[in-house]
Specification:
The protein has 146 residues and is mainly alpha-helical. The protein has one domain (7-133). It is built from 7 helices and 2 strands. A two-stranded antiparallel sheet has the order 1-2. A hairpin with a 2-residue loop joins strand 1 and strand 2.
């Protein structure tokens, strides 16, 4: 099961909103529909709701919702922009919106900053692995296993 990133928002100035993302929504999911599908699956698995309950929130039958979430190219039923708007309003799940913001509004600096954070997080593990590859005494040239 996928871990959903934590998203928080805070008012910085009266006319400005600062969004802080746990990195990775756009890396974890391939589409907005994938985010919606995953969120619904997690809510159903955690017994916070049922598929029928989600469908009722969106004013459709559970079979219609299932068909729309399947995104079958041969099926004319699609998750529309009106469905998306209703999903945000009724479910109060803003992760699909945050996914779109991250995917389309992330600057090169944001992407670079995220990469630096990931490298910094991996640095201790990389150093430990490098230490295992390097002999403790560079002059020692013992052959292992020979």
């Amino acid at each position: 099961m996928k871990r959903l990133p934590v998203v928080s928002a805070s008012a910085v100035e009266p006319a400005q909103l600062s969004l802080q993302f746990d990195p990775g929504l756009s890396e974890m999911y391939g589409s907005t529909l994938d985010v919606i599908r995953s969120s619904i699956e997690l809510d159903v698995a955690a017994q916070r709701t049922t598929m029928k309950g989600v469908a009722a929130d969106l004013d459709m039958s559970s079979s219609d919702l299932s068909r729309k979430l399947a995104n079958n190219p041969d099926d004319p039923r699609r998750f529309s922009l009106a469905d998306f708007d209703r999903y945000l309003s009724e479910r109060k799940d803003m992760r699909p919106l945050y996914y779109l913001i991250e995917k389309h509004l992330a600057s090169d600096q944001d992407v670079q900053a995220r990469a630096i954070q990931q490298v910094q997080a991996m640095a201790p593990q990389m150093l430990a692995l490098l230490a295992q590859l390097m002999p403790a005494d560079p002059k020692a040239t013992t052959k292992r296993g020979h």
